[in-house]
Design brief:
The complex is a heterodimer of chains A (113) and B (116). The relative contact order of chain A is 0.33. Chain A contains no helices and eleven strands. Chain A is globular, with a radius of gyration of 14 Å. By secondary structure, chain A is mainly beta. Chain B has 116 residues and is an all-beta fold. Helix content of chain B is 0%, strand content 48%. Chain B is built from no helices and eleven strands. In chain B, strands 2, 4, 5, 6, 9, 10 and 11 form a seven-stranded mixed beta sheet that branches. In chain B, strands 1-3-8-7 form a four-stranded antiparallel beta sheet, with no helix packed on it. In chain B, a hairpin with a 2-residue loop joins β5 and β6. Chain B is globular and about 35 Å long. The chains are: A mainly beta (113), B mainly beta (116). Chains A and B meet through β4, β5, β9 and β10 of A and β4, β5, β9 and β10 of B.
């Protein structure tokens, strides 16, 4: 069955450092991969989308890589700030058939001042 | 402002009771989705609709029902057949329509349902 794995343990880093979150998947061939931010008690908010034929995407302090051979995406936040503390979810999406997003369980990031 | 509105924010259900969660969007999006989130877990797909008057079961549809009579609205009913309904319910929409899937999802603020 399809499986999306994100590190369930919280990631704690110091302010100013780069945070790197991992998303691994099996039994899935996504056309797109998306990253979302979720704050406690709120709905997820879209951050970045990367296509299967793209290796890397950047947006301000955010960078996403997508390796379809390794079946892995890395999500980087550079110059992290305490305001970046949240849970980050990766989501996969096909190009045919059921196009609904399939989500990982998320990784909680805590940035210490 | 365009967006998705879920109501109520908190809902309490008695055993054996059906309850309906509201989801309305004014983004003119074709596709809408319902997800369930349990503590410390990701989102699991309950139902989705890619176009008006059509909807499909997701991964955990048992005990739930939906309707899509209007483009703007996608209500979710949690029936008494759902044995463990206490969870955080999220509604989302995407603008790609039935032929496009590569668009971001917009989420509502969620409804927290508790069985009492």
């Amino acid at each position: 069955s399809q499986k999306i794995e994100q590190n369930s343990e919280a990631l704690n880093i110091q302010e100013g450092k780069t945070a790197t979150l991992t998303c691994n998947y099996t039994n899935y061939s996504p056309a797109y991969l998306q990253w979302y931010r979720q704050d406690p008690g709120r709905g997820p908010v879209f951050l970045l989308l990367i296509r299967e034929n793209e290796k890397e995407k950047r947006k301000e302090r955010l960078k996403v890589t997508f390796d379809t051979t390794l079946k892995q995406s890395l999500f980087h936040i550079t110059a992290s700030q305490p305001a970046d503390s949240a849970t980050y979810l990766c989501a996969l999406q096909k190009d045919t058939g059921r196009r609904a997003l399939t989500f990982g369980s998320g990784t909680r990031l805590q940035v210490q001042p | 402002d365009g967006g998705i509105t879920q109501s109520p924010k908190y809902l309490f259900r008695k055993e054996g009771q059906n309850v309906t969660l509201s989801c309305e969007q004014n983004l003119n999006h074709d596709a809408m989705y319902w997800y369930r989130q349990d503590p410390g877990q990701g989102l699991r797909l309950i139902y989705y609709s890619q176009i008006v008057n059509d909807f499909q079961k997701g991964d955990i549809a048992e005990g739930y029902s939906v309707s899509r009579e209007k483009k703007e609205s996608f209500p979710l009913t949690v029936t008494s057949a759902q044995k463990n309904p206490t969870a955080f319910y999220l509604c989302a929409s995407t603008g790609g329509g039935a032929s496009l899937g590569n668009t971001e999802a917009f989420f509502g603020q969620g409804t927290r349902l508790t069985v009492v």
